# Entry
Amino acid sequence: MRTLYLDCGMGAAGDMLTAALLELLPDKDSFVEELNALGIPGVVFTAEKCEKCGITGTHMKVTVHGEEEDDTPHHHHGSMGDIRSIVSSLPIPTMVKLDILSVYEEIAQAESHVHGVPVEQIHFHEVGTMDAIADVTAVCLLLHKLAPDRIVSSPVHVGSGQVRCAHGILPVPAPATAYLLRDIPIYGGEIQGELCTPTGAALLKHFSAEFGEMPMMKVQAIGYGMGKKDFPRANCVRAMLGDRSDPGDTIVELRCNVDDMTGEAIGFALERLLDSGALDAFTVPIGMKKSRPGVLITVLCREDQKNTMVHLLLKHTTTLGVREFPCRRYTLNRTVETVDTPYGPVRKKVSSGYGVHKEKYEYDDLAKIAREQNLSISELSSKICPDS
# Structure
């Protein structure tokens, strides 16, 4: 699986993400030329080599009518209508336009919540200027070109202290940034300043499938996107693109013990769990307190299914509590092929990975033919595949 990992140990901003992703491309100059040919009003992109704490990377300089954002504190403040008009005119794929607008919708919802006004009345003081449109467009277009199957981001360092914005001096993270980063792991620290901007937060929220430690992957390209400010740590976003060939994924194992349920009731509970999407549900006979025979019910599910499965266990069994065990599973890659045989088509399950290859005919197909031909399963298998 082609995986992109974004290391946000010094936060994230639109220009930093742009520069980090740019470094992953084999032909950086051509892409910068492509950005400048988009016709974003007054915008010019320049990729500059930059060094922070001994690390060399790229800083993406964006000027609007010849001036950078920091030099022009009184930019025109755009509305969602202005943003839609500009984006609709850009010569980029429709999916990229939809990503850009989705990112701005996230920002608009955050600003609306913070300021207590409808989305269409929002004016983007921090993120609505042309340079921010340029950053969002560049990131969305870069990700379209890189086409990772999955994007994973680290927990986000937001900085600490205060930040000056259009409404005055606000705590870090700024209210809109804090709202955007709900349900995302964040942390502060000794670095004084705003490390994660609203634009960076919205881009991470829109594109990241998960936030956490770097997954096991074979890294093929690394990019460093540098911020403008200097800190005791290298002020950059690091992007790592590679192959997450390890199919292991984290799942949850839920368990409960029961000693006062009938077999029929336990069977019904297992059916409800499996029908609701459990990866597996099974029982094991156990000995319980007072030498009573009992049953251990185990359910395997994904993290986002956990609450549903706990509810079903408590509803359909007599248990008073459920235990949770996070675990990692490793699975073979599986496909289903259809094989033509003298008896008709038969489905075959093919599994591979970790240097292992397995094939197995679908039991239901074999059973149907065996009944029709008055054969045993083993007799039919030997006729279809005599070498097995």
User: Anything to note?
Assistant: The chain is about 30% helix and 30% strand. The longest helix spans residues 94-115.
